[in-house]
Design brief:
By secondary structure, the protein is mainly α. It is built from one helix and no strands.
């Protein structure tokens, strides 16, 4: 898929955001 790198970046951002929400 062409947007695989983009999806990976979004996935990483979502993972970080999720951890941030868990901490807060």
């Amino acid at each position: 898929f062409v947007l695989t790198p983009y999806n990976s970046l979004v996935g990483t951002i979502l993972s970080v955001a999720q951890m941030t929400f868990l901490v807060v």
